Amino acid sequence: MDGTLTLRVDLDSGVPAYRQIVNELRILLVSGKLAPGSVLPSVRRMAVDLGVHFNTVAEAYRTLAEENWLDLRHGRGATVVKRDTPTTPTAELMQEFRHRLRTLVAEIRAEGASAATIRSELRELADEVKP
Amino acid sequence: MKVELLMSLYPLLLVAVFFQVMPLFTRRGIFFSATVDPEFPQSSEGRGLLRSYRWQMALWTVLVILLTLSNVPGHPSFGRSTAPLLLVVGAALSYWRKFREVHARYGVKAPEVRQASLSTAPAKENFNVWITLVPFLALAAVAMYLHMHWNDFPLRFLAHWGANGELHGWAGRDWRGVYGPLLFGAYLNVVLLAMAWIISHGSRKTVMRGVTVRGVQFMLYPVTLTSILAALWPLLNTPLWLGQGITLVSIVGLFYWSYRKISAAPAKDEVPEPRGDNYWKAGIFYWNPDDPAIFVSKRVGIGYTMNFANKWSWITMAAVLVALLIPGLLGGPG
What we know:
The complex is a heterodimer. By secondary structure, chain A is mainly alpha-helical.
């Protein structure tokens, strides 16, 4: 694992801290920056660094373990495991994704971004965050 | 009586000077423990606030000195304990008022963005085994020397030192009298190392942490030297003032070095501390129930303060206090 990887959490944001940890780690996992076999810092270490409660980090690790990204074994910390990526997402998941995307697109259009800019940004992100 | 008065005024003046310069020992963007624009302390308002605090401190100092002058002839203990305490309380009060003023009128809201390193490298990178080991090896070597010269020790010799450096007690030629100073030195070194270890594991990876842990390791050397000089004194009449002098110079030098390190422009914390002023009560006490860190970097001064909302901070401080009291309870080093 790259020793310089960092994780950022904005406590002023409306998104719960545990959800931000999950989202940030998932980006690193999907992009392969956190490769299978990598060991994440312990819940205690991560909680001290972020200045958040232990349960916040523990909940984030549990969520990622339920998504089959992490293996949580007592005494061994959180290890990234090789995950079989589904070939196609479920229809429900796609619907949820579309809904969230629509909200975001509306938000940025309201701030003046053009359709071309949004298309370009989405293409760039899709290329950037891929296994 | 004049000596008693001088002994009372000397620590008072030291405390007063310390509080005069204390607000300068801070990081960029922090002024009287409040988050401000980095340029604010140099502005006319910033300079005015500092001037006003210093005047208040000067008034407190004069008041406490007057109280000392009128009380010490009848109550010598007033100068030793009550007067410095009054000055500290006065300084804390003035500082708290300035913190509130700066926070309310000139404070800026820092974004509360936290950052964690995903590296699993252990926190022991600040410890150097050899630097840590040398003082213990030196103590062991001197212990062997004392063992070899056991019979050269007088049956009874002066061995207890007061706070003013005067000898005022006796020790015998037994393990406690001969090895006592070395054991005390080794014990102090262990306590210092334990504190450094707790800080390196119970705090975030900041510039302050590196400075503190290295500083504590460095302090093993003057402590060891002082212990060795004290242990050898009955045999070689070693200059005890040398140990005390080197310790004092080391502490002052360490403060200067630490200040240069933490205030240096490129100094950047790998894992920053929480930035909200709301976590700082009276600008001095850190209170954050959600933060599992035991220690956090001070906003003013050098070193660490505890997270008063964390029960483990209290337990740790109690353990350190007990550890420091144990030698006294066992009858001192010699």
